Amino acid sequence: MSNAKTPVTVIGLGPMGSAMAGAYLNAGHPVTVWNRTASRAEPLVERGAKLAATPAEAVTASGLVILSLTDYAAMYAILDGVGDALAGRTIVNISSDSPGKTREAGAWLADRGARLLTGGIMVPYMMVGTEQSYVFYSGATEVMDEHRDTLAVIGRPDYRGTDLGLAQLWYQAQLNLFLTMLSSFAQSAAMLESAGVKAAELVPYATETLNLAGFFLEPSAQGIDSGDHGDQGANVTMMGATADHVVTASEEAGIDLTLPRAIQAHYRSAIERGHGRDSWTSLSEVIRKP
Ligand SMILES: NC(=O)c1ccc[n+]([C@@H]2O[C@H](COP(=O)([O-])OP(=O)(O)OC[C@H]3O[C@@H](n4cnc5c(N)ncnc54)[C@H](OP(=O)(O)O)[C@@H]3O)[C@@H](O)[C@H]2O)c1
Fold it and tell me: Does residue 2 carry a pLDDT above 60?
């Protein structure tokens, strides 16, 4: 049988799991699905997926079982009752959680004779299966190698190493950037809204600022990696004063201060620790050792 026809089971049919199952159907794989709320499987069944009656039936249907759930607790809720069905299976859990939880899950599955590959998908559901889609994976190299081609259907596999926690560490590090960016966009929009400006007007300016941020990353990484925080023209005192001004501007706009106060706290700590004349990259020292 060619890799393109490897049977795949997808458990969890939210927007992401449904998109993954859809990508496998498009690629001609036999697809079995299961979801706690069975009605969510209907559009996939209409396209040719087989709906398993129970999680045990779903796990038994394919050697490769992909989980797309809210968190790892949902995995235990579903798989705890499947008995011997897990033995010999490969579980690829592409659900969000902490690295520690994924390592615990590896031991739990190993006790039941199953192998775990952990994953974190880095695109929104509507981009699954496109060229932009990529997925961080970690776990045993042989498991990755065995399933690499089949997993490539949903996105480019980006294998991070054997430690099961690595995929989620990378995923959450990226999501930290993404979520902070979204919250700061909402904050900036609220600041401007106090002057009657619509968020739509902010978009091209915000995009330019985010692109500019890319320009800072490489020299910043050098400072963070080396611990050399020589002033490159953006020292803590100057940047910290601006962080204070963002708080004051938000206060004057009468909006929430949680995010700007968190940033302000980083700069204040760095100044307290004597980094006032150092580059802003010395914030990494405050973050590493709170
Ligand atoms: N949506 C995206 O664009 C996107 C992008 C990147 C990563 N992700 C990640 O992909 C994963 C799935 O996302 P999603 O958007 O598809 O999420 P979702 O709509 O919240 O779907 C979650 C799935 O988990 C199931 N579930 C949750 N708790 C359960 C439990 N205790 N027992 C059994 N089933 C349970 C739900 O079943 P029911 O249908 O019965 O509720 C549903 O199938 C998440 O980890 C998310 O962080 C999503």
Answer: no
Closest CA relative to residue 97, chosen from 123, 133, 132, 73: 73
Average pLDDT, integer, range 223-242: 91
Burial category of 69 from C-beta neighbours within 10 Å (exposed 0-12, middle 13-18, buried 19 and up):
buried
Ligand 1 near 68 CB (within 6 A): yes
Q: What is the pLDDT of residues 73-85, one digit of tens each?
A: 999 999 998 989 9
Residue type present at position 264: Q
Confidence tier at 4 by pLDDT (50, 70, 90): low
96 lines ligand 1 (CB under 6 A): yes
**Could you give all domains of the chain from N- to C-terminal order, each with its CATH number?**
8-162 (3.40.50.720), 194-288 (1.10.1040.10)
Which residue minimizes the CA distance to atom 4 of ligand 1?
124
* Whole-prediction pTM: 0.93
Cβ(108) to ligand 1 under 6 A? Answer: no
Question: Which atom of ligand 1 is closest in space to residue 17's alpha carbon?
Answer: 16
The pLDDT score that the predictor gives to residue 1 is 45
User: Which of 9, 13, 16, 94 has most ligand 1 atoms within 8 Å of CB, for mutation?
Assistant: 16
Is there an atom of ligand 1 within 6 Å of 125 CB?
yes
Percentage of the chain modeled with pLDDT above 70: 99
SS3 content of the chain, % helix, strand, coil (to 5): 60, 10, 30
For ligand 1, whether the C-beta of 69 sits within 6 Å is yes
> What is the DSSP track for 235-264?
BHHHHHHHHHHHHHHHHHHT---HHHHHHH
Structure token pair of residue 165? 């926690």
| Residue nearest atom 19 of ligand 1, based on CA coordinates | 14
- 69 CA: nearest ligand 1 atom: 24
